[in-house]
Amino acid sequence: MDQTAQAPTRWQRFKNSDIVYYFVRDKVAMFSAFVFACFLVAAIAAPLISPTDPYDLTSIDIMDSELPPSWMDGGEEHFILGTDEQGRDIFSTILYGSRLSLTIGFLAVGLQLILGIVIGLSAGYFGGRIDSFLMRFADVQLSFSTMMVAIIVSAIFKASFGSAFYSEYAVIMLVVIIGVAEWPQYARTIRASVLAEKKKEYVEAARVMGFKAPRIMFRHILPNCLSPILVISTVQIANAIMSEAALSFLGLGLPVDQPSLGALISTGFNYIFSGAWWITAFPGIVLVTLVLVINLLGDWLRDVFNPKLYKG
Question: HEC states along 168-225?
């Protein structure tokens, strides 16, 4: 036997993994990943590829307000998807709005991850009164919807610091509101995985070797709970984007001068019956498509990590 054969590299192990094997054989997953990648690249490169900067007031002309898309009568060639009531290019605002929506979605899910992992690991590993207290706290949290938490927090914040200060830190506030409102989803799932993992021999061996609880929880148990976490994260990104859109639609999200997809839909809704349907329609189509492809990827990941459900 050839003793000089090298162990496979990390990249080779990844190429030969089950997730890649199933991915290249699932056309829906590949198409969804491609569309999501396009959204992500377009959002990141928004300052480079957008025709105008919707944040730059000097580039906006109110005389260009409510222009239809370029292929309709009255449309102008350099406004492909038309303009909104302020004269901003819809295509540019969608690019910047997607950037904001995705940023809020990823950051909110990151906050959910931190809270859910810490609380779920602690509840499952220590058990007893700690488990009961943390899970009852999660039950109380679940009884409040994201909208209710947003209304309470935004009202308190605006009353304490003023609307101008709230508008300045609206992105941070939305991340905190959505993150705090949705962490129990992670905590419950991780707790269930920890209850199954902590009875296994490798955990007992780590205890015998004298490892502290935090090291056992985060270095030994947590890596074996990553599969459900990855699936939940995919779904929660879509939920966070939809939550931000709903809050912005209700006027509890981003201010008018920071157009997220939800804010664009909310603003355009006031003009939909006057004939300027494109102000709401195009951001709405982008939002629905973005959430759809993320959910399709989440469903695919769920099936891949559960062989009983996956049918190739």
Answer: HCHHHHHHHHHHHHHCHHHHHHHHHHHHHHCCCHHHHHHHHCCCCHHHHHHHHHHHHH
Contact partners, residue 72, CB within 8 Å, separation at least 6: 82
What is the reported pTM? 0.82
Return all residues near 139 (Cβ < 8 A) that are at least 6 apart.
184
Domain boundary assignment for the chain: 104-280
What six digits make up the tokens of 249? 């639609």
> What class is the 104-280 domain?
mainly alpha
Stated length of the chain = 312
CA 116 to CA 124: how far, in whole Å? 12
Find, among 187, 172, 58, the residue nearest to 124 by Cα: 187
Burial 138-151 (b: 16+ CB within 10 A, else e): beebeeeebeebbe
**The predicted structure's pLDDT at residue 111:** 92
User: 263 by DSSP, 3-state: which?
Assistant: helix
Residues of the chain with pLDDT under 50: 1-4, 309-312
C-alpha dist (Å) from residue 148 to 6, 50, 136, 153, 163: 57, 36, 19, 9, 19
